[in-house]
Protein: Centromere protein M
Amino acid sequence: HLASSLPLPSERDHLRPRIDLIAFVIDIKSKHSLKNVQASLPYVDVRFFLGKVCFLVTGVGRVNNCSVEMNAIWKLGEDYCSPVIFCELELEGIRVATAQRLLRMLQICAGHVPGVSALYFSMLMRNSAGD
Structure:
């Protein structure tokens, strides 16, 4: 399910499936994209920041066209204790690998991987990102 911003409309709450993972997509070529994510973050329940939120940054293959400061993106990840994933959606191989990575994260967050919690997995990702 996709949403362009939060909060979600409340009139369909009873029909909404359980939310296991929230991936905020930031287009590195668009300041509006970053501002939209920043405006949506206060509407997310704090419990989601215990391993069920990630920031997916697209357009990283075109660093020359960046409108968003990389420090601002790293700060989001740090401030919200959430992993930052960089990808280039225009390249099929990277797009497929990113989709597989997100699917694995979703399986963990939904509790379908025995012995691995969303919080534990999130901490592993955050530690490996700094290396």
